[in-house]
Structures are given as structure tokens and as C-alpha cells.
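Friendly challenge for the regulars: who can give me the C-alpha cells for this chain first? No prize, just bragging rights.
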Amino acid sequence: MSVRQKIAVLSLWLAAGAARAESPEGAVRRAMEASLAAQRQAVAAMRLSIARQRAAVGVPANTQVAAGSDDFFLPWPALGPACDPLPEQELDPLLEQAAQKEGVDAGLLRAVAEQESGFRPCAVSAKGALGLMQLMPATAQELGVSDPFDPRQSLLSGAHFLKQLLAQFGGNTAMALSAYNAGPERVTQAGGVPPIPETMRYVTRILSRLPLP
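First reply, four minutes later:
Bragging rights claimed.
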């Protein structure tokens, strides 16, 4: 066997040993990192698409929209009873409890609540979604919510719904968020984030609030 062949065999042996030595946790972490990287690439593509759409309708590139509101909707206070965002000292424990109970990331749950309602427990959207997590009445009823304006119930049920969507779409955060915004049927039909400007913008904003791995 030549020296070159010996080196090739040794390299293969070392690579195989490294693969055998990798723990299950390491494999899961690599898979999650790859999934998140793919999702961030999708977000970058969505941002480019949104920028082109904004340019096409003459919206200046530096125009910004406040968190908790949306270009196509009135500000939250105009849509429902006037109320202030829930104070951090009240919000944080409720977020942590809901995230731990349902096994979802607290940062993700916080980002969804911020985008949905700006942390306003009395928020009502033009489409009739209610509370911190902006649950539609039918969804709230299915989840056993007796008071959608109660912050604790809203966060718990929203976290449960988010957990269901993550499971339905194989842990793909972008698809689960799309389903939270546009409904699971549209995500299934599109095979990914549906090409709806509101939904694309919604997913982009939430993912941009999550820390890099």
C-alpha cells in the first residue's frame, strides 16, 4: 500500500471514529443549527422580496413600523379598548410559566406576543383576534380559554397552540409562525411560508428578534 493510500485510509478511519463518538445531543444540536440556518436564509429571501414590494409601491426603504403594529392594520389602541402593555414584572413570570409548561422557547413566545399585541392584554384586531396572543374566538374555544383577555390564559393557550404547530411542521419555526398567522392549511398548501406579504413580514419580524445560535 502506498503512502497516499495509507493516508486516505487513516483519514477515513478518523472520520468514522469521529462520527461514532458524536453524542446524540451533538447530532440534535447540529440538526437544529442546520434548520435554523436554512430558516434564516429563507428570512433573508423574504426580506429582499418585501423590500422589492415596498419599492414597487413607493414606500421609502427606511420606513419603519412600530413593534406590535402592522402596515395594513390600525394601531392596536384603535382596534379595541385602550390599555397599556403589561408591565415587565407581570409579563416575565407569566411568559416563563407558559413556556415551561408547554415546552416552548420563552424567547420565541415573547417575540410572538410582542408582534401579535405589543404586550397589550386587551388588544383586539380588525379580524377579531383577542388578547396578548391574539387568538381567534374559535381557537380560544377549542383550547378551553374562558377569558381571552386574561394574560395568563392567553399566554398558556398561545404557547400550547404554538407547540402544536411546531409539532405539526416538524419543528420548523418559520412554518409554525406562518401557520400561527395565516392558518395551517395555507402553509400546507404552500409547502412552506405562503407568499402572503403580511405573513412574510410577520415571520421575518419575529425571527429577527430571536438570538443567533
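Confidence is low (pLDDT under 50) at residues 3-16, 56-80. The domain at 3-209 is CATH 1.10.530.10 (Lysozyme). Your move, everyone else.
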